[in-house]
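Quick log. Single chain, no ligands specified.
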Amino acid sequence: MPAFGSASPSSVTQKGKFEPWDLQVARGQISLHQSIFQFGQAPTVTSAQSIWPGSGVYAFPAAATVMKISSGSANDASAGTGARTVRITGLNSSYNVISEIVILDGQTAVNTTNSYLRINDFEVLTCGSNNTQVGIIYAGTGTVTSGVPANVYSLMPVGYNKQTQAIFTVPAGYTAYVSSYTFTSNCATANVIASGYLYTYVSANAFPSIEATARFNVGGSFDRHFDYPLPFVEKTDLDMRALAATSSQITGEMHILLVKNDSQTA
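-> predicted structure:
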């Protein structure tokens, strides 16, 4: 492998040198732009279901609220063998980005410092000797029973170390551009047809809409790349959903470019 040069590792276009713009965005060299990959998986899909490991269509919090962070295993704790700390990132009541690190206490709920209207990311930061989480880790509200809150707003399935939900809300002051999305399906029954769609909701409009659709067979996938990325204004909820004639496992993913609004797009 050739040796790296001693110069600063800059790929920003300059002095006739060029590397792809999307690589520059991914490297954080284009200010006020952020690339986001949102992945979700739904283990059992029959009727309309959001692509997340919870049940049914995802219900967003009605108001910003303190989240209770807990695990189904006592080993996910500050001195445990599993996950020890997690980071939750979301939006406050004004749809501004907020984030914090939480030290786990097994099945005992730990309250967040911030109040969250939306959760966009939830991930394990540090682990014990197991090098991964031991139980399902939750963020939610209400009574917590054996580590499971009554109302679940995000969860990390065992082995993922992060949430798996194809759901995202555009922060205030930004526009999200969806450049592509993908659905995949797996089912024990042959010739099962599944349908997917990108469902959006803007609170200011008070009504939902379907922006794009997909249709695919069991064991297959549907991948769509847009010639012109789909723009979504601030405070828009993006929710990939699917349904199938027979119980199926379905995954979904979105590639999103988040861009800070300027005076002409705000």
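The helical segments are 21-26.
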